[in-house]
Amino acid sequence: MAYRIEDEQGQEYYLSLQGGTLTLSRESVANYTFDGEGRPHGAWIDGLTYRRALDNRVLVKWPGGPGQGRNRRFLDDNERRHLFARIFSDVRGIGEAILAPSARQPADFPMEVAQPWLQRVLSWDWSKLEAERERFYAVYKPVPIMPPDQYLAVVFQATEGCSYNRCTFCTFYRGRPFRIKTAAEFREHVQAVRSFLGRGLAMRRSIFLADADALIIRQKLLLEMLSYLNQQVAILSPNLTRAERLQFKRKQKSWFNGIYAFITASDVLRKSAADYSDLATLGLRRVYIGLESGHDPLLRWLRKPNDASTVVKAVQRLHSGRIPVGLVLMTGVGGDRFASGHVQDSVAILAKMPLTKQDIVYFSPFVPDEGSEYVAEAVVLGVHPLSRADMLVQETIMRRQLRQAGVQAQFSRYDIREFVY
Ligand code: SF4
């Protein structure tokens, strides 16, 4: 619900209390969002969009020129300090204006919620926000990547790292030995995350079981972990009627629409359809697989742990266990050398999968990491990168050919540079 407030001079402000966040805006000049603890979450100022991570880094985004997409970078310390100073100073002014006795508020303005929330916002300052970094890293290992529909998830790290960790293009978990937490460690981690997020949990809508390979955990332990999550938080059942869903959401302070996780295609095949069905009963709603390409020579060059046909088997297995999939395809990977095989075989392999409207195919423009083996090996093999425009052409061709082939899945863009947790 958004409330319009006017001050004595007729200046307009908006206050919204939706989705577990407090949003304040001043005419069309600035807009700020805070979590339930009052920590800044996002801001829009003079055409720039800012997103604060839980470790107090800030990503700023702004529109590029025609056909160039968005620009983005992380702010340096000085810029962050200035940004937070501006936000708190502006919020102090907005707060004074909208809570003043002379302000014109709507009759149903929720003063009893808005006032303490604003006080919580103003209890933060630069040094308290900076101290959040230490609190964050006492609870979490860095969270480098998530699927784009999970950016508002709460992350619980049941494992650390990737059990494979050898794809040439991926540096997300390098230097992080793979390990599976014990049931006791996981319970402790869940409690630590809840205490760190506090009232900020209410703005999160799903649960992401991290790191890269959490579903590799042997079934008995995984069921124990998911059962524990079900005892601790409210997970929405997909079988409720519309009225029951509304009632569920009204009753819960915070609720989640399900549990999600990454997995490799070969690891999917370690569990049976019945195992996945049991995980679905405990709230597992979708798993994400890095298909990357349907072109086997390219997959071998990328040193993926599986070929493309394994992904078809993995999707069949997951569907038999009532789990939809998110498949990530990297446009531009393999550069000019692999381009035609990449497009042709990716379309062919996706057309062989039993994808439905519950599944998602992500087109993720390839972002080479300069320190990766991929970049070094591309020089040796003479692989030249595709331009952003060429990647878009690949995406357009694949989308069209996939629809022509009758693929029903949803399609979505996935830019990994947009992510902060
Ligand atoms: S399996 Fe996934 S997380 Fe692991 S190295 Fe490959 S791309 Fe990275």
Strand content: 15-25%
Enumerate the strands of the largest sheet in spatial order, edge to edge or round the barrel.
Answer: 1-2-3-4-5-6-7-8
Number of helices: 13
Tell me the CATH architecture of the largest domain.
Alpha-Beta Horseshoe
Q: What structural class results from the helix and strand content? A: alpha/beta
CATH superfamily of the largest domain: tm_1862 like domain
Distance between the amino and carboxyl termini: 26 Å
- The parts where pLDDT drops under 50 for at least 5 residues are none
| CATH topology-level name of the largest domain | pyruvate-formate lyase- activating enzyme
Radius of gyration: 23 Å
Mean pLDDT: 95
Described by the principal axes of the CA atoms, the overall outline is: globular
The residue fraction in helices comes out at 25-40%
Number of strands: 19
- CATH class placement of the largest domain: Alpha Beta
Largest sheet: 8 strands, antiparallel
* Overall tally of domains: 2
Ligands in the structure? iron/sulfur cluster
Task: Explain the layout of strands and helices.
Elements: E1 2-6, E2 12-18, E3 21-26, E4 30-34, E5 40-45, E6 48-52, E7 58-63, E8 70-74, H1 77-99, H2 111-122, H3 126-139, E9 153-157, E10 159-160, E11 179-180, H4 183-197, E12 206-210, H5 219-232, E13 234-235, H6 242-251, E14 255-256, E15 259-262, H7 265-268, H8 273-281, E16 284-292, H9 296-301, H10 308-320, E17 325-331, H11 335-352, E18 360-365, H12 373-381, H13 388-404, E19 410-413
Parallel strand pairs: 9-12, 12-15, 13-14, 15-16, 16-17, 17-18, 18-19
Antiparallel strand pairs: 1-2, 2-3, 3-4, 4-5, 5-6, 6-7, 7-8, 10-11
Helix pairs in contact: 1-2, 4-5, 8-10, 11-13
The structure holds iron/sulfur cluster (SF4).
